[in-house]
């Protein structure tokens, strides 16, 4: 099934999506396949079974209508600020279970150092600037919204 939302891509920004279906690391890798890249760094964020010392039973991600545009802007900025040949970022929305992939980001570059730096900046900026909110349900019956305004 295609992404629920996707944005246009450029030469360096290869894949940007927010989707309600399971994420594929292979799709991200395929989007960044080129012969000029000696370094490829991938970060995969998964749903863990705990947070703040409490057990987590599951969670749900919600995205603001502007989230895809903001994600594309973040990817374009990383592509511009770092010496990379490719940038990709996909984020899941909807109900997720423990172990599900929530986000996959990756960058390619001629050398590993640039790709490591760019991938770190990509995930950190995505978390700080893209309006995607996490609703966690804890084993003790409490819940929490993370990243909500």
Number of strands: 10
Number of domains: 1
- In round numbers, the mean pLDDT is 92
Q: How would you describe the shape?
A: elongated
Specify the CATH architecture.
Alpha-Beta Complex
- Helix percentage range: 25-40%
Q: CATH homologous superfamily - what is it?
A: Molybdopterin biosynthesis MoaE subunit
InterPro entries: MoaE_sf, Mopterin_biosynth_MoaE
Subunit structure: Heterotetramer of 2 MoaD subunits and 2 MoaE subunits. Also stable as homodimer. The enzyme changes between these two forms during catalysis.
Catalytic activity: 2 [molybdopterin-synthase sulfur-carrier protein]-C-terminal-Gly-aminoethanethioate + cyclic pyranopterin phosphate + H2O = molybdopterin + 2 [molybdopterin-synthase sulfur-carrier protein]-C-terminal Gly-Gly + 2 H(+)
Family: Belongs to the MoaE family.
Summarize the structure in words.
Heterotetramer of 2 MoaD subunits and 2 MoaE subunits. Also stable as homodimer. The enzyme changes between these two forms during catalysis. One of its GO terms (biological process) is Mo-molybdopterin cofactor biosynthetic process. It comes from Nocardioides immobilis. Converts molybdopterin precursor Z into molybdopterin. This requires the incorporation of two sulfur atoms into precursor Z to generate a dithiolene group. The sulfur is provided by MoaD. GO terms for molecular function: molybdopterin synthase activity. This protein has 149 residues and is α+β, with helices and mostly antiparallel strands. It has one domain: Molybdopterin biosynthesis MoaE subunit (Aldehyde Oxidoreductase, domain 3). Helix content is 27%, strand content 40%. It has helices at 25-31, 67-81, 112-129; strands at residues 5-6, 13-19, 39-46, 50-51, 54-63, 86-92, 94-96, 101-109, 132-138, 143-146. A five-stranded mixed β-sheet has the order 1-2-6-8-3, sandwiched between helices. Strands 4, 5, 7, 9 and 10 form a five-stranded antiparallel β-sheet that branches. Strand 9 (132-138) and strand 10 (143-146) form a beta hairpin. The chain starts with a strand and ends with a strand. Residues 1-5 have low confidence and may be disordered.
């Amino acid at each position: 099934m295609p992404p629920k939302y996707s944005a246009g891509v450029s030469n360096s920004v290869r894949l940007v999506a927010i989707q309600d279906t399971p994420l594929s690391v292979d799709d991200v890798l395929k989007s960044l396949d080129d012969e000029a890249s000696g370094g490829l760094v991938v970060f995969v964020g998964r749903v863990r079974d705990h947070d703040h010392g409490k057990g987590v039973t599951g969670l749900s991600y919600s995205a603001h209508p502007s989230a895809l545009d903001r994600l594309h802007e973040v990817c374009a900025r990383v592509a511009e600020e770092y010496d990379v040949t490719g940038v990709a970022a996909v984020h899941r929305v909807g109900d997720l279970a423990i172990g599900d992939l929530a986000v996959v980001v990756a960058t390619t570059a001629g050398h590993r150092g640039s790709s490591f730096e760019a991938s770190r900046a990509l995930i950190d900026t995505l978390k700080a600037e893209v309006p995607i909110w996490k609703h966690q349900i804890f084993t003790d019956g409490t819940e929490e919204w993370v990243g909500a305004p």
